[in-house]
Amino acid sequence: MKMENLLKINLLSICDKYLFFQINRSRKLLKLFGNANGYLIFQVICWHYALILKKSPEFDCKRNYKDNVIKLWEKFGKEGFNNKTVLTYTLVSDLTGLSIETVRRQILKLKEGKWVDYSVKSGIVLKLSEQNNKLLTDVFNSEEVEAFDSFVDIIENKIPAPYLNITYTPPMDKHG
Predict the structure, then answer these.
(1) Structural domain count of the chain
(2) Is residue 172 a part of any domain in this protein?
(3) Which of 42, 100, 129, 167 is the most exposed place for a label (fewest CB within 10 A)?
(4) H helix intervals, 56-140
(5) 80 or 20: which carries more pLDDT confidence?
């Protein structure tokens, strides 16, 4: 049976679990950021910096394990993400569908909350306070990974493994 047919047969079972995951995730982040606009904008900012992280020479795609990614994220959070890409109000506006003025107001709130910094030259810069970085990496990320893992388990149970093309390479110990 083709993967496409397996998805068609199991679409509702998979879709409702995915939406449940997204609703719970959104509810937690709405509570954290106070409104949907702030949450959506912060999500775009994190996505932007996740792409930068992936392009970093320090990122090892063969050892893309949660702990390695979190350590690198924390390091860059303290030292700064060395990038030449400027995240502008216009780009965030285009990605979110929000007006530039709404983006500007939300960035000011995120700046006051010690999530980002902004200048015309540097654009929107992810600049987490130590407390906010710990909240994202230690609390929110752990809960999100657990919830997403449950969602992936459901997919694995609905669709046979050969169709998923998911590979897992366990982390190597200190001795290689």
Answers:
(1) 2
(2) no
(3) 167
(4) 66-79, 89-96, 100-112, 130-134
(5) 20
